[in-house]
Amino acid sequence: MAFTLLFFGIMRLVEIEILNAHSLDARHLLGEALEDLHPLMVGNEEEEIPGAVGEYVEAHKLLDLKMFRTTGAEIGSSNRVDPGVAEFLAGTEDELFRFEREGGNITMHGMRRLRSESECVECHLPAATLGAATMRFDLTDQMVAARGSVRRNLAMLIAGWALLVGIVNIWLGRMTRRSMARLQLHESPKELSTRQSEDAAGLLLDPVSAELYESLRKFHENQQSLDAEVANRLRRAEHMASLGQLAAGLAHEIKNPLAGIRGVIELLRDESEDEEQSNLFEQIVKELDRVNRTIHSLLSFARPSLPQRVPTDVSGLIEDSVRLVRPNLQKQNISLEVEVAPNVD
Q: How many whole angstroms separate alpha carbon 178 and alpha carbon 83?
């Protein structure tokens, strides 16, 4: 789910940046075209202007440049009025750029109002509208190429991540098997027999010797029981140490990728304008924080220290314990409510 959101989020951000960059380029190109066109309009007689404009437009076919009169009629096309241009000229905006999607194609349309400058004051009022210029540019090929490049890069990134995860899983598997082998090797074997038999006392004819032998036998059995108890305690301690090392390794290997994922999700949340999508990103961040708290608990568990008697915040200890067990209880539809007295230290 996180990788899917990351993929579509990055694709959307890249597409927006590409469109914004092309929009800036279009404004620059259209502005330069009008700057070059203005001397042609000033330096020619009125009846020669349409011809000069037509030649200039023909030389800029790549931009699909068109010039319109104040009525919205295109110059050089039998005075055909374009409703969109006429509506634009009737408004107050000096320029308008937009993107249109149709049949899988992405086209950028731009319009700019042509106003009179200082050289035109002999015939026109200052800043009067002389007409409009439009351009049209097909961005389909550029967007397809950009999307393909992003997909390839993301595919390489995901493949590298999958390879890294696979290597980490193999390493964790080997480490787990080694830890389990160590745990098995440290198990003490069961006592199969004792050196003395209870029937040996019956072979002794001396009652005093028999009583001494029985005392020695019981002492030996007690000593064996104490040794077995010490061995069991040592084995449990080694088990806990191995499990602590395993938990620490797992926690460190999971914590770093979670930090990267959390950073990307926060970026997508801040960039998103969709409230529902932002709420979804926020929920993902909260779940990642919950996992991170669990990882910190595992790391604390993996750092054994010498036992010391110190003042303990019992309330905080209970809250930490509840935080650890609450997810499993929620999965089983079990509600856990804890109330701690205020005077508990």
A: 78
